[in-house]
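Revision sheet: structure tokens.
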Amino acid sequence: MPKDTHHYTNNEVTVVWKPAVCIHSTICWKGLIDVFNPRERPWVKMNGANTGRIIEQVKQCPSGALSYFMNEAVAAQPEEPATGTETVKVIVSPDGPYLIQSECVIVHSDGREETRTEAVALCRCGASNNKPWCDGSHAPAGFRG
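Predicted:
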């Protein structure tokens, strides 16, 4: 988990940004420039839109670099046991990474297992410096596929 994590809040919802995970898809700021503006510091302005609109845009983040949590404490509900029948959808993004937008377990080549609960972007071009994660290297490498 990246140590460089930033939190932005409007007291109702908190947006979490993990820059090391970001693949610079530009979806965040192209979709909601009043909140996500890379030309300003801080680049996330939580008063730029209502909570629902912010959540809607954060959910569009393909890499999981942006996530959110509601600030209000919610009583924990017991989880249903997994049945093993859930289908995981893997999206092949044009000229970019494989995207998994549901909980998954990544088994690394050394046998380590890592459960991811947010969106995951996996490198498919081979140029990432953060394998198996996509770091956006596909763009400068000119990857097509």
